[in-house]
Predict the structure.
Amino acid sequence: MKWSKAFIPTVKEDPSDAEVVSHKLMVRAGLMRKLAAGAYSYLPLGYRTLRKIEQIIRREMEAVGALELHMPVIQPGELWERTGRLKAYGPVLMNFTDRHGRRVVLGPTHEEVITTLVADNISSYKQLPLNLYQIQTKFRDEYRPRFGVLRTREFLMKDAYSFHLTIEDLKVTYEKMYQAYCRIFDRCGLDYVIVEAESGPIGGESSHEFMVPTEAGEDTLVRCSCGYAANLERATAATPKTEPKESPKDLRQVHTPGATTIDELTKMLNTPAEQLIKTLVLVGDGKPLAALVRGDHELNEAKLAHAAGVSNVQMADAQTIEKLTGAAVGFAGPVGLSDLPIIADKAVQGMVNAATGANKTDYHLLGVNPGRDFTPSTVADIRLAAPGDRCAKCNGELKFSKGIEVGHVFQPGAKYSDALGAQVLNEKGKNQPVLMGTYGIGLNRIMAAAIETRADEQGIIWPMSIAPFQVILVQLGQSDQVLATAEKLYEDLTARGCEVLWDDRDARPGVKFNDADLIGIPLRITIGEKALAKGNVELKPRTEKQPQLLEPAAAVDTVMRLINS
């Protein structure tokens, strides 16, 4: 393709609303343009890269026996009500009421649709296993779209769903898909980490995320040198070992007017945060409960939901808290809180002479000792890991970093089958729910992650596999010799299957070189009169500083070797 015939609107300045490198460069390099908050048009260069990512995904999905289909974006809200996800997804779920008064969902994912399809068309175990996938536009009503294509309201996702008679069979396919994901991200040139993850609204116990470490990411990775890796929602830390420095004291009530936060309380009592018990009142599946964590720890709502045996939890409102505790928000405590199930974090159990709310406005209790003054209904790990924590496996120091989630695999099992009636006859002629695996990849995120982790001050550095073009021919000048050589190189490379962008513009060399570096094509061949006078052209990989001089035919051979290496 000739640049003069292409649509590549490069710009010099960063967009004013861009916060991360990928957003800045995708706009500056003419890959995309913003239409509205969280909605982007992909221009020809950007779309070529997306299509290449699609091709890689399709080949790997076909290699593990997944079959491609295409499902509607518009989904009946009634299906989401039956699975409980209409409420679980909350305000991020794009939905509306149509002219007939029916609730309609714009799908962020397709578990309900695919399960209904299987329920209506699969009746025997002999038709299993079945693995179906699509590459489809998805929607999330993000409150604050940001970071370019990393958090948008409309995005492109590959979602796959496998169906099985037994958990053993599900695990076999899960492992195949897991390995296929590794190959996909390897082929896309990503440096990724696989971490244990929470399943969130998808559901299920076994779940892994594929994360690309970068400061532009919004997810937090927790890792240890022993190999342990998890996202922050899933990460488990060793329970802090506490050696009692004093004997249990008597309970004592103290006046703490207006001290409703941990910071205020530590200053007023001259007590460190780790000596405080934070009592949080929440609602899980419509029923109230209390959660206890140390004052220097933060509650992990996903872990709490698991420990409480509920699908999700949310903070209770002020009116509910006052009704259940008899005190204003900020003064709740476990002592005497007999009408609520109390779930305590493991770290709370080892505390001696702690301070906590007195269930009386403007008062706290000192000398609180778990086991003596209150007994939790459940003790579990319900907190977020934090810097300074040790690894639960080896007691090494946990390291925290940011990352971009590019893929996620789950085993929701029978969650959707039970809700939507997807059953088959087993070998004994009895009906049983089919078991599901679900597997997602964010194509836009792959694109952004590759830019975030490989760009330099000049612009993008594409991996060869997903670059919009493999070679850019930079023509300097309009002499007959330059034009003839450029045309011959273009024809020879194209004939050998190479994807070539020919910069034939009548522009200054500096403009052409800057644009070539900005858009990040892996290999650059420069055709200029000075080198041609000695029978050469310049070949320069994007990652190298200096070009090498080669005869045109040798340049073609070298390019093909580099592309195929």
